[in-house]
Amino acid sequence: MKTHFTNARLIDPENGTDRIGALRVEDGVIKSVVYDDAPTDDAETVDCGGKCLAPGIVDIGVKVCEPGERHKESYKSAGLAAAAGGITTMVTRPDTLPATDSPETLEFVARRANEAAPVNVLPMAALTKGRAGREMTEIGFLLDAGAVAFTDCDHVVTDTKVFSRALTYARSLGALVIAHPQEPTLSAGAAATSGKFASLRGLPAVSPMAERMGLDRDIALLEMTGARYHADQITTARALPALERAKKNGLDITAGTSIHHLTLNELDVADYRTFFKVKPPLRSEDDRQAVIAALRDGLIDTISSMHTPQDEESKRLPFEEAASGAVALETFLPAALRLYHASDLDLPTLFRAMALNPAKRLGLASGRLAPGAPADLILFDADAPFVLDRWKLNSKSKNTPFDGARMQGKVKATYVAGQCVFEAS
Amino acid sequence: MSYSQSHLLGIEPLSPTDITAILDLADQYVDLNRRDIKHSDALAGLTQINMFFENSTRTQASFELAGKRLGADVMSMAMQASSIKKGETLIDTALTLNAMHPDLLVVRHPHSGAVDLLAQKVNCAVLNAGDGRHEHPTQALLDALTIRRAKGRLHRLSIAICGDIAHSRVARSNILLLGKMENRVRLVGPPTLMPSQIGQFGVEVYEDMREGLRDVDVVMMLRLQRERMDGGFIPSEREYYHRYGLDAEKLSYAKEDAIVMHPGPMNRGVEIDGEIADDINRSVIQEQVEMGVAVRMAAMDLLARNLRAKPAEVMA
Lengths: 425, 316
What we know:
The structure holds 2 protein chains of 2 kinds.
Chain A: E1 2-12, E2 17-26, E3 29-34, E4 44-47, E5 52-55, E6 57-62, H1 75-85, E7 87-92, H2 103-116, E8 120-123, H3 139-144, E9 150-151, H4 160-172, E10 176-179, H5 184-187, E11 192-193, H6 196-201, E12 205-206, H7 209-225, E13 228-231, H8 240-248, E14 253-258, H9 259-263, H10 285-297, E15 302-304, H11 312-315, H12 332-341, H13 347-361, E16 377-387, E17 406-416, E18 419-423
Helix pairs in contact in A: 1-2, 4-7, 7-8
Chain B: H1 16-33, E1 47-52, H2 58-69, E2 73-78, H3 90-98, E3 104-109, H4 114-121, E4 125-131, H5 137-151, E5 158-162, H6 169-180, E6 184-188, E7 204-206, H7 209-213, E8 218-221, H8 237-244, H9 248-251, E9 259-261, H10 274-278, H11 285-315
Parallel strand pairs in B: 1-2, 1-3, 3-4, 5-6, 5-8, 6-7, 8-9
Helix pairs in contact in B: 1-5, 1-11, 2-11, 3-4, 5-6, 5-11
């Protein structure tokens, strides 16, 4: 099967270019990229009408609530949401019930995912059994079963000895470890970032320093063990110098951040709006700006949706008691485009962080507009305006902080291995 | 005299005019409360429900008495003992009570913001009787009335709030109210009991109590909330009393006619010396309790007037 995309604004994160051209797909793989309009032949032609054609988003850290809480999100609903949101690869989190910490559970997850979701699903596995931070999981078996990375999600392995051994063992297998940099004794019970806003609202708060302390510890352990490491969310200015030094020293470290920390700040919580409660809590505007700058400079490598479905009951509670997390698969791209429309980041830089870098870190061939790469593509209109209605989301859970928000950027079509899996009506 | 709000959730949304409206009416209720027959029909026919999700003796009694003196049908519920234990959520409890058509709902809850949440789900007037570390507006209003009656004004005064600011909703409401009325507010206490970036609230922060009390008109002590001390904010009670307990020597740094306040209940010998608490020339602690009933009567009266005015507006 051959498809020819013409008159497309090609967003190429590898070369950092954003210009009109054409792209040819054959048998699910990108065949050629040309910037002079080549004549079409027998291929099916898609006239992109000058809209953006970019590599599909590779999203590290999506929570799908199977097994355990299917009423919040299933592979079917998450898959539809991902396709509609331009996410062609979901890298799923193991913080399920029970945790995805054995090859058997992982196989169940992989089977469910492939049956139900129209996009690529790559599961991550827990680093320690039950995410309890005491014994490492069967990292070797889990790798064989298809785990692409190992993480205890927002649980920090507080026992340094356990963590250092898990890192050492993971290194021997070349496995990627993803950690949540945080000093948990300092952040215990916190619902907000300490500062004027938290003081005014009377919310228990954590100093942004807790993130740097967690990162500092992890960096020391990387020096010790040489493991492959990715920090799931760097959200504060104070953590950035440590990250920069670690990279300069040649450690195998990368870092991500979440779309919510890039586009919202602590003041958005306003009158205790629990849909804005995420983990770590939203930060100050200064922190947000610093993280955007770090992303522009390439110090922070990836952006994730940190898609975390929660039902209404767990959010309709006083702020301190409410669950953390927000759904984001379908708002990821329009939220990211806020940074483009605000002239904070250009489109190739955004897709470097949303597609190219996460794919590279996981050793995937996708995330690029280059011959030989899988034809995981999204066609989107970067300017189309809309008002988000949370009840129209495909996700089973509707806990988005962007309900009623004015946004720009609509996905027109999503392709996985050359097959169209979503087309806007 | 007008009060612009349909609830009393905190001091933050109030304007100086709102505050003055409540205090002026409260002055009238002080007079009523000193008569032999302490009764008015301002709330006759209305139903007031007190929902206390946290232990309280004096605030609950004060609200109950205020409602009864104004002729409302008052019901008090100790929520700790009831449905919460059975797993019902705050909102379900609120909706259940709402179906009984109360007119005034008085709520205390251990979590910040819980009363705001509840107010969004019911269609009666809600009064915040204290939510977590957030606000306790009627306490700030009764403190303001006490100060205004003792000092003859509620502006251009220098007021020191001393003690556990971090865990205190009373402190937050007082900082906001006294600031809105254009007073100088000082906060005195150890840094472990100060909220972060509190200096940005337009207050002066002192770690030395003698410096903090120098030439102030009002000394407002806070209870050292021992039940909230989940770990080592201060080394010991005796060291705290030595450095931050109000005794005659420390009080001598304040103005000669400075008054001493405390929201109660007091820990004598922890944050305040017993003799100062009982000194009728300095301490206005008993007046605060008296003003509490009057202020709550005024607040509920004004909210009830707004409730009654609503249908008329619709018809017009």
